Amino acid sequence: MTILDGKKLAEKVRNELRNDVKKLDHVGLAVVLVGDDEASRLYVSMKKKACEDVGIESIEVKLPNNINEEMLISEIEKLNLDSKVDGILVQLPLPKHINSAKILSLIDPNKDVDGFHPQNVGLLVTGTETGFIPCTPLGVIKLLEEYNISPKGKNSVIVGASNIVGKPVASLLLNRNSTIDICHIYTQDLKAHTLQADILVVGVGKTDLIRGDMVKDGVVVIDIGINKLSNGKIVGDINFDEVSKKASYITPVPGGVGPMTIAMLLQNTVQSAQNKNKRY
Ligand code: NAD
Q1: What share of the chain is helix, strand, coil (3-state, %, to 5)?
Q2: In a shared domain, residues 149 and 244
Q3: Which domain CATH number covers 205?
Q4: Do 248 and 165 fall within a single domain?
Q5: What pLDDT band is residue 276 in, cutting at 50, 70 and 90?
Q6: Which domain holds residue 139?
Q7: Are residue 254 and residue 142 in the same domain, yes or no?
Q8: pLDDT in tens, 49-84
Q9: Residue 92 in contact with ligand 1 by CB distance below 6 A
């Protein structure tokens, strides 16, 4: 069994990006944080630190929880026009009174480094992949590539079907000629599906969702889930001890997909800055 070492690969990507950033006049990522959700604040501070590490200016836009939709839209429009801002990331979830899909659709697609704008989603689904690709799914593909794991002709089972994780992972694997099976909360007999997986990608948010008897020998396992146990320990959705005994490759949590997600955010931001001449 081989560990898919996301921490190591993310460090390699960051080293390359540090050099790319030096060749550019300026690279800026605006992170919009609405409200004071603890997990969101933690994610934003991690992204800020990562930006600083490679020389990207992190521009934090903190807004109150009770901001109305119109005011938030006007903040987004300002960032769309600001030439110092190469990437715009709106930290999700937004408060319930705000229509997240509408906000995401108003970000300039050329600065949409999270890849959630419908234009970028369309470019992914239609297979050209010329727009921005969501960071976690892109990190999954980079990890598979790094370890020369080809999805072509394999059965890929994806558990979790959200717009930010499961669906884009499915599109990326389908674009690479894998056969796709997407499972979600209404899937009956999850085990019958996961047992078919040559590649199993799980992003749900439920500890021990996948046990050893739910996978076949030699499976490649990507665990996207993040769960905090009562003792403070962070684990994924896979029972690592059981599943790693049967897997050929497996991501650890932490140290697998998490660091790759941040590295891909930085990569998308640098890419946007490199495209800048085409915009201004
Ligand atoms: P979400 O709540 O939007 O989606 C969860 C998905 O899981 C849904 O499609 C739902 O139908 C499915 N699901 C729920 N219970 C299920 C069950 N019992 N069996 C099968 N499917 C089930 O969550 P999300 O934003 O997609 O995040 C999923 C997980 O991935 C979370 O733990 C989140 O913290 C983690 N995550 C990690 C990273 C990272 O960088 N590692 C990035 C994003 C999300």
Answers
A1: 45, 15, 40
A2: yes
A3: 3.40.50.720
A4: yes
A5: confident
A6: 135-258
A7: yes
A8: 999 999 999 999 999 999 999 999 999 999 999 999
A9: no
Residue 278 pLDDT greater than 70, yes or no: no
* CB-based contact 173:150 (threshold 8 Å): no
Residues 215/247, Cβ–Cβ less than 8 Å:
yes
Here the CATH number for the domain that contains residue 84 is: 3.40.50.10860
Name which residue sits closest to atom 2 of ligand 1, judged by CA: 204
Q: What does pLDDT average to over the chain?
A: 97
Task: For residue 3, list its beta bridge partners.
Answer: 250
Residue 156 lies in a domain: yes
Q: 245 with 143, same domain?
A: yes
The residue among 263, 248, 252 whose CA lies nearest residue 224 is 252
- pTM for this one? 0.97
* Same structural domain, 146 and 215: yes
Q: Is 139 in the pocket of ligand 1 (CB under 6 A)?
A: no
For residue 170, being part of any structural domain is answered with yes
> What is the C-alpha separation between 187 and 185, in angstroms, rounded?
6
Residue 236 pLDDT > 80, yes or no? Answer: yes
Ligand 1 pocket member 183 (CB < 6 A): yes
Q: What token pair was written down for 16?
A: 């390359």
**In terms of residues, how long is the chain?**
280
* C-alpha Rg value of the chain to the nearest Å: 19
Mutate to test the pocket of ligand 1, among 194, 204, 211, 226 (most ligand atoms within 8 A of CB): 204
Tokens standing for 176? 């690479």
Evaluated on CA atoms 143, 146, 147, 148, the torsion sign reads: positive
Distance from the CA of 85 to the center of ligand 1, in angstroms?
Answer: 30
Considering its fold, how many domains does the chain have in total?
2
| Same-domain status, 96 and 174 | no
The residue contributing the CA closest to ligand 1 atom 32 is 205
- 212 occurs within a structural domain: yes
